[in-house]
Amino acid sequence: LSSYTATFEIPSWNDTRKTDYRVGVQVDGETYYWEGTIRKDPVDKNEIVVINTSCQRISDGSVEADTMDWSPVKVWHPHLQTYDHIAKHGGDVLLALGDQIYEGQPTSKDTSSNFNRHYDYLYKWFFWMLQTRDLAKDMPTIAIPDDHDVYQGNLWGEGGIATNNQTTGGYEQPPSWVRLVERCQTRHMPLPDPYNTTQPAPLIAQGIGVYFTGMTYGEVGFAILEDRKFKTGPNGFPVDLNQQFLLGDRQKDFLKGWNTDWDGQKIKCVVSQSPFGMLHTHAASGYNFGLNDRDAHGWPQHRRQEVWEILRQSRSFQLAGDQHLSTLVHHGVDGPADAGYSFASPAISNFFPRVWDPVHNSGGRTATVSPYKGDFYLDGNGTLPTGQPNITSNHPGHIRIVSAANPLEYYDQTRNIDPVNLHDRGAGYGIIRIKKDTRQITFECWPVHADPEFPQTGSQFPDWPVTIHQAENDGRSPTGFLPVIETHWKSAPVLAVYSESNSELLYAMRFAGNLIRLPVYDNNDSYRVEISYGNGANVESLEALSPISEGPAAIHSFSALQPSIISGEAAILQWNVEGATNLTIDNGIGQVTNLSINGVGHVAVSPLSDTTYTLMLNGTLSAQATVRVFPTKAVWLGNNFSTAELQNEAISGNDADPDGDGFTNEKEFNFQTNPRSVQSTPLINTDVVSTDPYTLEFTSAVPLQSGQAIPKIEFSSDLENWSPLSPLAVGVEEVSRNNNPSEGTTQVTIRVSLPEIESQAEFFRGVWQLDQG
After folding, report:
1. pLDDT of 609 strictly over 90
2. R_g of the chain, CA atoms, integer Å
3. 170 neighbors 161 (Cβ within 8 angstroms)
4. Residue 374: left (phi > 0), alpha (psi -120 to 50), or beta?
5. pTM to 2 decimals?
6. Candidates 3.30.530.20, 3.60.21.70, 3.40.50.720, 1.10.10.10; CATH matching 19-473
7. Are 27 and 203 in contact (CB under 8 A)?
8. CATH class in words for 554-630
9. Residue 773 pLDDT class (50, 70, 90 cuts)
């Protein structure tokens, strides 16, 4: 069956610039165009904004009952207010996580023939396209079908088998039609099952395909799942736990490969139809109380635990929809909240409201707004440790409810905004703000009526927004830490930690700085750490690492990674501490405890003049770091060249060397030396301080572009061919820093202990590689 979709694949696409496009189609001899923009990959944008939508009914349910009331009170399509407000958030990625259509809207589903089924779906799909096209034409869009998209009230896919009873598992509609639906919504996404050695990706039962895949955009990695396709049906399921499934084996293999693939990524998240947990207590228009819902992903429980163990390996959080109820939850596997977070967005509009209210354990509405936060245990079977929700449950597989956007209707309240059957049932959307520099993720939950540009129209749902740190997606309490790893002139490394007792991956993550303290959770084991940079092509290993317990409160280091900057630019302050309960920096920065990962953290500062910062640990211990501020290039040029000379590139140009000392003006500016004096040159000295072991000291001024410049130590056997030393293969430490030299930028002295010299003809040098080369 044709999905009436056309795909365009352009190899070697240049994603460093935006490109306008138009698509034309001829109908009855006339050409129609649709225009849009393919954005540049926003790798240079610090905050990536993700829009999360799902569950988009077009009416309140009475239209198909033939009431003939097509007013906006009854017909919500095309959700103009909703999408107008969504557009104002400046999104980078649009997620549509299921139920883009409902099979019974605006007319009852028609599966009376293949032809009718085919076009019944397509015309309903066009409604969603009309609603979202003004966003989707300019924004990367992930659309994945859920149960209603394939004309089922619930879907337990059972690997694609056919069924005439959805509760036993499988697809009720013909496989050719299921493929049509999946092509409509997913054909534009990256190739499916990308880590599978068999390509194209193998089909499943009935020749149905898979679309689970990965996408990298704006340095955020997205794992796109289809969390129902392999799930076991709830009736007549095998007693053998090994034969019960949530995700399929291929999906789990995909996630394990994706967990260690950090090429172009700083943060990872998983997007799928439904959150991995049982996250509601009441459902339907009568708000029936019920805990037995195997459609929710609390069941099968052991598979739900398995999924969160896998996601924890990459500190990934989950984005989902489906439930009509927006929740933010910290999940547990082996202990309280020891895994990651899930955020389910509200329904754009819904006819089947859900609620999280464990205190009110009977059906119907209530006028009492009871506390709902805390730790609970629900597995989808309705079986609880005490027979009912227990806010003090210590069951390891529990859920910690952080926020829930319960509908006002449930509490017999109203917003008094028409249509009330839309606005009082928790309709809305999610916004996720991912800050790459601090690795912080903020979850926002917006009701439909609130215009983000006009606060007087309303605000987010209560208990939102919430901000977490990437590292909080592994909530385990460390038993110890591996020795601090410093990668020096190789920054933003990916570190993967493996147990040496079973070779299993504990976790992998790209770190922001060059100083990392790695937590472990079994001090009786030893560990291997694999370290890579950039695209991960070259990997270095540290083996037989033994954990040590956290020591007493101490400041091990506090420094400015860019000790000298140009006015208006930023420097990074970095620290390494232990035992921090309260960590602050003065000069207006304040609390930085939440910016630390296992005692190591960093923050950007932009002082207007030379500034010394004080780091205070627990109110008693302190250390200082200084950032020096130098004038801009224009001011420096004006101080060193006359007006006439500034017009002469041979004298004042970047590549000119007016004093003939071998250093261009660009280099003299970066080291703040005098371009008119042959005696004033950038300081780069090398001294041999010991031959047993062989130890060198490099003393150098730090260039103003140290945020982009690359310091490195190289070796050669012939003084012609030079190769960089790995900072992990040698001993490297900063032994002194001079913030007030008589001339130029801040100076540092680095001591390097070299491996055994195999030849008498080995040479070493220190190098600053600037932007300009």
Report:
1. yes
2. 30
3. yes
4. left
5. 0.91
6. 3.60.21.70
7. no
8. mainly beta
9. very low
